[in-house]
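User: Fold this; tokens only.

Assistant: Input:
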Amino acid sequence: MVQHVTSGIKISVVTHYEGSFYKNYKIHYAFGYKITIENQSKDSVQLNARHWIISDALNHKETVSGEGVIGLKPVLKPGESHTYNSGCLLTSPFGAMQGHYNMVNFATAKNFKVTIPSFKLSATFALN
């Protein structure tokens, strides 16, 4: 598990390898991840957007940005958490993801970024 706290918001990430398949004559490796966003601050916050940088062992990089997470813009009161599952495809059995969430603090009406720490994606068959 990888964890990081920014401005009282704790991000925890757990990953797993889901398998591989061929698409358009190219092998793809599927990875899943579970993220828990925990509000350890004294203010209510809302996650509005996400920004990802996804890279694989072949030095391919992809940037993904969008509103919310899996169609939601969760509001977290102090002490609350939100967990969701998602995934990505790589063209190599190893890679990494990192990024940030854009959030708003309801008490101050200020926007802020919460770091999503870099986490590794590794196919189990390729590990030594």
